[in-house]
Amino acid sequence: MSCTIEKILTDAKTLLDRLREHDAAAESLVDQSAALHRRVAAMRDAGTVLPDQEIESQIDRICEMGEVMRKAVQVDDNQFCKIQEKLAQLELENKELRELLSISSESLQVRKENSVDPASQPIK
């Protein structure tokens, strides 16, 4: 598996977008739950009562949706952490490779200067 910084950045952006979508979905669930609770309270105030079975069904459905969202966010968080670790590792490796390249370039430059330097040439 070849990982490039661009691929990791793209994956991180995708995960961030997905986290935002999950966050929006979670907010929607909270809003739906609040609306359901207001509806039940309004019906109680008006003397109308939803059957307990329907209330339980709605509550169970909302709880299931919330659990699915929590699991999805957890999976995305885990993937995001793995990508961040890999990105940090690649950045460190890139820095070390740049240092090695710099040392190698300096060494080549010194060799070129020594081979071109007229003072280092033997006198004939």
UniProtKB/TrEMBL annotation:
The keyword Coiled coil applies. It comes from the Eukaryota. The keyword Coiled coil applies. It holds the Pfam family SIKE. InterPro entries: SIKE. Physiological suppressor of IKK-epsilon and TBK1 that plays an inhibitory role in virus- and TLR3-triggered IRF3. Inhibits TLR3-mediated activation of interferon-stimulated response elements (ISRE) and the IFN-beta promoter. May act by disrupting the interactions of IKBKE or TBK1 with TICAM1/TRIF, IRF3 and RIGI. Does not inhibit NF-kappa-B activation pathways. Associates with the striatin-interacting phosphatase and kinase (STRIPAK) core complex, forming the extended (SIKE1:SLMAP)STRIPAK complex. This is Suppressor of IKBKE 1. It comes from Nannospalax galili. The lineage of its organism: Eukaryota, Metazoa, Chordata, Craniata, Vertebrata. The gene is Sike1.
